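New here. Your pick:
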Amino acid sequence: MTQMNNPQSLDYEGETSLTPRAKDVVDRLMGPLGGGSTWRPRAVVLWAGALADADGPVFWEVVIATYPSFDLVPQEDFARLFARFATSMPPVNLPKRLTVYRGQSADQPKGLSWTLNREVAEGFARGHRFMNPNPVVLQLQVTRDQVAMYLTDRDEETVVLKAIPA
């Protein structure tokens, strides 16, 4: 797998390139008073719901910095937010066409988070915290313009789509 330079991925630990407004939000979400990995995505949805449409840049800073720490992402809510703030979405440094994979239980609906690495998808299909009863690895061909974010932290090569695939 070719390693790709990705200006979107942020390593929050010690991250100083966030604007002060985004850093304040990220500090509250990731700090000792913030909630856990299942609480955090819902907190971002509530916070983003109060933003003005012109606040897209701060939305993307916060989401890119915190998304890797999310579990149980409310898929439809994030797809709506991605559409709302699409005009301020940072560019994604990926090939024009790519194959992505998603590991999950076969009886679950598809989601926004995929990976470039089939082995990572296989791990998610098996289940990291518990065993999935019906593991499956999905494969999808997408174009760069379907991608909201590409995150390389956690060595998962996460491709987050703008919309939930049919």
